[in-house]
Write a structure and sequence with these properties.
Number of helices of chain A: 18
Oligomer: heterodimer
Helix content of chain A: over 70%
Number of helices of chain B: 19
Shape of chain B: globular
Order of helices and strands of chain B: HHHHHHHHHEHHEHEHEHEHEHEHEHEH
Strand content of chain B: 5-15%
Structural class of chain B: alpha/beta
Strand content of chain A: under 5%
Helix content of chain B: 40-55%
Order of helices and strands of chain A: HHHHHHHHHHHHHHHHHH
Radius of gyration of chain A: 82 Å
Largest interface: A-B, 22 and 20 residues
Structural class of chain A: mainly alpha
Chain lengths: ~675, ~450
Amino acid sequence: MEEVIDVPGAPPEPAVVSQTLGNEQRASQNPIDNTVATESEPQKQNVQEQEKISAQRITNLHRHLTALVTNIQTAADARESMRRKDLEEAREMRLKLLENDMKSSQEKFAEITKGWSLAKDYVHAEELQIALDDQQRLLTILLQEKKSLINHLQEELKVGDDRFVKDLRKQTEERDLMLERMEDQIRTLTLAYREELLQTQAVNRQETDDLLTRDMSEWDQHIKTLGDTELDRLTERRKTVAEHEAKIHSLIFHTLDKQTAAKIEQNTKLQVMEREHQKILASNIIIRLKQIKERHELDILMNNRVESLPTEKKKSITTTHSTQPSKKSQHLSKEYKQSVQHYERLQKTIKQITLADTRTFEDMWLTVDAEVKQLVEKALDIDSLICKQHYGIAWQRPQLPVRGVHSDKHFHRSGHLQFSGLSQTNPASHRSRGMKTETDTESTDVEVCKDRSVVQSDGQAELEEEENMFSMEMLTKVMEPLWEEIGFLMEEDVKLLHCLDKDAQTAMKLGSLLSSLGIKEEDLPELVHFLLKYRQHQEEQTEDVCSETGESHDQAASQGTSSTSDLIQPHKVLPALKSFLQQYNKSSQQQSSARHTEAWSSSEDKAYWESLGNIISEDKVKLWEETEKRLKQYNSVLTEISELITETDSLKQQNAELRMLLQQSLNPQVA
Amino acid sequence: MPQSTLPSASDSKVPEGSKKTRTIISEDPCWTLSLLPRLSDLCLQSIANNFEEHPLFEQLSSSQRDFLQQRLSPSLPLHVTANLIGDGVYWKRRCQQLWGLCDVSHYGHSWKRMFFERSLENMIELFIPDVSDPGNLLDMVHHCRDFVKRLRVSQLLTPVMDPQRVEEEEVASDNEYEGPSMDHFDFSILLQKLSRLEELHVVYRVKECGMNFEWKMFEMTDRDCESLATALESCKTLKVLRLHQSHVDDKKCRLLVKHLLDHPSLRQLDFSHNLISDKGARAVAKLLSRSSLQELDMCDNHIRDHGAKAIAHALSNNSTLLSLNLRLNRVRDEGGQALGEALLRNCTLRHLHLGGNEVGRRTAAALSEALRQNNVLRSINLSCNSLGEDGGRALQEAMCHNTSLTECDLRLTQVDEDIVSSITQLVWANQSSEPRQDQEKSGARREVDEMRDEAQEFTG
């Protein structure tokens, strides 16, 4: 502030300026301190306050710094105005001076001019000289005064120039100072702004961070909720899928069951229909066979007629025409053979089927029966145990039901076996067509009953006794001519037979005969009876025709005409046999079917099974349940007891130990 | 290189020059397709090269225009480029080529405007009367008339005096030769052509005159004043006139004001640092009452109480003036009192500068009376006056009732420090209350926004 002090007539300003400047500086420092204080404060203040404070700070700074600069300007202004004032004063003084000077010089000039006018009046040279001198003196004084004035003014000018130069210098200095201060101001302002910027940045950053974290957490939460809902939906969907799958499965099974049921039904229907079809076929075949037979019979009759005719015609006409019918007959016989074979095959198969069915049925029956019986036995054992041990009641074995049908079956079988045994004893029976397979299939059963086949004659006798038909003797008697009659059928066997004894021979003969005829053994008495009856019947009848037909019977018949017997006429044996066979076939068919149905449909079976099932009565069952309950209770009590026993054991042990301890404690005391 | 694989015997025979000629492009490892310039670029380059003969710009797409702006030569004549090429990189390049550092923000961020304004200013500043050809200048004006908005002339050269002519003048002072045709550049040829000129800053002085100093270099002659006044009258778009440090005295001021009295658009007038005294001030006061001036700067003149009274009278009836600067004049108490009384009736003036005017206690009393009632005045500067204790006290009292004043400069006014500080406190309070109102408004708006956000959240 030296420059300011230099200026004359401006004493108050510097102090004021300096004071104000100092104040400003102090004031400008204070807000910074304040801001520093605010900076140190925690940044919990919200941004608004921060902004407010910072704005205030900046305005303060602006104010003070601009004041700092404008101070100089105002000081310069003040100085300028002072200078002008001075200049004006100086000018006024100068003007006054000049005026004064002018006045005095004008007076003097007037004096001089007066002197000149006076001088004209002077005549004397001396006077003139004196006046001239005066005038000269006055003029020189005037000139001197003027000169001094000029000098004075020049001096003033010089001083003014100096002052101007000084002012200029001062102004430059001041300008420099102002520039410096302005630069300072700019610097401090930039610093302040930078600080401000940093602070606001920090605050904003914090705010953004806060916002970010908050948003992030919110986002996480949202995502979590979304995931949860998705999961729930997924589980629900899974559940529904599983339900639907189960439904689909059940539907599939349902339809499958329906389908299978329908299939089974259809199958059964189909089987029934097939069976019917088979029946129809079989009946058709039978009908056809009958027709064939009838035709055959007719043929036989015709042949006989034809044969008798040539014999008759031989005598009268030469034989030439017999070729045609013989051809025809050959053809027919061939056909017949074929059909018979076919028929036999069919029958064989039917028999096989029925036999197999019966056998399986029997096996089943046997096994089931055995199992059931075992079960019954077991149940009875248990019952007996319960009765005897738990109730102490005397146990009575209930009556086991006996199966009647079973015995029947047995009988049948035995008969069968006997017969088969017979057939087996005759291994050479090549002709045995119908029974051969049967014997083979039943070979297993044969082993069981071999003993009987050895004593076949006894068995036969028994059989005949049971039947109460004919005596053994009678039978043999009747059968002998039959055997004789058809003995030719087994010419090769005859030689073998000779080495056997008579009984065996007859049995062999009988077996072979029967097998060749296809008659079952049990029907033997029937055959005998029939034959006997037939003889009586035939005796009245004239000998009809006994011609040879397709098979061995026919041949036998043709040759058998010559054989004789006391019981039956040998020539009548064949037709009798034929008629018997006819009858027998029918009856055997009926019998077999009847027997089967009898075996199946008998209600005894049901009763039998039920009785087996109910071998333990309702009361007994109740009793059993009661005993079971009781036994369980008993068992529980027992288990409790067993647990308690362990406890008691431990307690006992403890007791003993305690006693020991007591004793030990007592003993030392005593000791 | 195939040569390297050849045996050394043949290698030695091959001269160095042929080796270089044998290289093939495909063997150049640096060569890629991207090195090839595109055909469109080549075309644009050729357009740029032959722009003077075949100027093509309007038809091109914007990207192609950008390309051209980058490539066009900055030395192209202005009659080609001035009206064809819009504001952009090309003008930036030209500016930077001419002046190096440029601050485009002072020119409305328009490089083209900057280029033309600065080049025109340069031409005016370097115009030597009777030597330079005004034709060049007129050419230039012809090109730039649509782009120049402001002229800041910082010097005007005087005509060159030939030593011979000087002697001649001395010898035959009353010859037919009447000196140079003009004393400075004649604005009348220029201003009426610049149809968009809004600001004119003129200083009649020479920069860096060195040892050739002459007083007339630093003053406006009557002839200059006349030509300038007619030129200003012809320029109807002018808004700002600044004529400072140019020795404008009362006579010239009155001449200028006479021509500006009915100017349709003048808003700002600056006669600072001149020699205007009461008569000139009276003329300016007349202008104030006639035109719609908004800012008047008369600082550093010689206006005394009479001039101030005239201005005060005009001010009392004025309703457009916003700022009045009478710094460093000699208004004194009479003028100050008149101004204070005028402020009682005026209700538009916002800024008043009475610094360094030798006003005293009475002015302070009158102003404080005005401050009690006036609520428009924003800033008042009374620095470097001898207001005294009484004046300060009166002002302090008045400030208690005022709420509009945000600046009050009382430095170096012989007022007690306590009073000054209390007044500044009051002023600061007013200052902070102003933005606080804004803040309250913004705060209210923020609250409304927050409420709206909350409502959106609830509805969402």
